[in-house]
Design a protein that fits this description.
Blueprint: H1 11-35, E1 47-51, E2 58-61, E3 67-70, E4 75-80, E5 85-91, E6 93-97, E7 106-110, E8 113-126, E9 130-145, H2 155-158, E10 159-165, E11 170-174, E12 179-183, H3 188-191, E13 198-205, H4 206-213, E14 221-223, H5 226-229, E15 232-238, H6 242-250, E16 255-259, E17 264-268, H7 271-278
Parallel strand pairs: 5-7, 14-17
Antiparallel strand pairs: 1-4, 2-3, 3-6, 4-5, 6-8, 7-8, 8-9, 9-10, 9-11, 11-12, 13-15, 16-17
Length: 279
């Protein structure tokens, strides 16, 4: 029996063998990537996997300062490049507090839908019937993707805008990405009941702790003074008792809490504010 070198093999046979090898290599790479999810650091242009255990809520801070709280038994894929930031909810759900990056839009793929962030804290979960999105603060646009849309981010051309949600609103989608219903007065406590009930922190910055409280309220807490944001504090509060945390912040030197209709701002106290406090 004679043998042929790779150079003399028929083109179709050689292509078939190479294709099989490439498919096997990709499959192996995916398995290894998922297995090493917890220890990987995102690199531009690559997918990184983050997973939570069946009994834990996992907190992940992405390189753009986006804070993700993964629900139990959930898997999230992350890919950043020079043009955009893409997150894929592969299983379960998460709460997202999106980091600001004006040069790169952020999109979350949830089944047959794409969520377009507009400065937001929101909850996104897959379900047996489709998906659910609840906006805690900010706005989220929801697109239904066309089946042959590929990886394009031009939603206006290859998808359909089905919802534009504001704070306190929730949308449910079918498996094909079509809109089921919108609840304009969602029960945020029910939607985020899976989050930890306590916030415990040791030597964390005020900014980091404030973001954790923002997961539970439609009235975001904004730390406007950089020196206050960088202060390190320790404490233990009930997650839904924002008032107790604000009272604590008010005891810190030169800290002034301003309650507005849409948000709560923490600033450095002016001389007049300090004078009134001393009276």
């Amino acid at each position: 029996m004679t043998t042929q070198s790779a150079a003399t093999l028929p083109t179709t046979l050689l292509r078939h063998r190479l294709h099989g090898w490439v498919v096997q290599a990709i499959a192996t790479l995916i398995v290894l990537t998922v297995g090493a999810a917890a220890a990987m650091t995102p690199r531009p242009g690559t997918w990184t996997m983050y997973a939570s255990g069946p009994t834990e809520v996992r907190r992940v801070t992405l390189p753009d300062s986006t804070l993700v709280q993964l629900d139990r038994d959930s898997v999230l894929a992350v890919r950043f490049d020079a043009q955009q930031r893409t997150l894929g909810m592969l299983r379960g759900g998460a709460l997202f507090d999106i980091g600001h990056d004006a040069t790169r839009p952020l999109h979350v793929q949830l089944g047959a839908n794409v969520l377009e962030d507009i400065g937001t804290v929101f909850d996104a979960h897959q379900s047996a019937d489709g998906g659910n999105v609840t906006v805690v603060s900010g706005r989220v646009k929801i697109w239904q993707r066309e089946q042959d849309a590929g990886t394009s981010a031009n939603f206006a051309a290859d998808g359909q805008l089905i919802a534009d949600l504001g704070a306190g609103q929730q949308a449910s989608m079918h498996r094909d990405g079509s809109l089921d219903l919108i609840d304009h007065h969602a029960d945020l406590g029910l939607s985020t009941a899976w989050l930890p009930t306590d916030i415990h922190f040791e030597r964390c910055t005020v900014a980091d702790v404030a973001r954790r409280f923002n997961a539970y309220s439609t009235q975001p807490l904004r730390i406007e003074d950089a020196s206050i944001a960088a202060m390190r504090i320790s404490g233990h509060f009930h997650a839904r008792d924002t008032e107790a945390f604000l009272t604590y912040l008010g005891t810190l030197p030169d800290v002034h809490v301003v309650r507005g209709s849409d948000d709560i701002r923490v600033t450095r106290a002016t001389r007049s504010v300090r004078s009134r406090a001393l009276r």
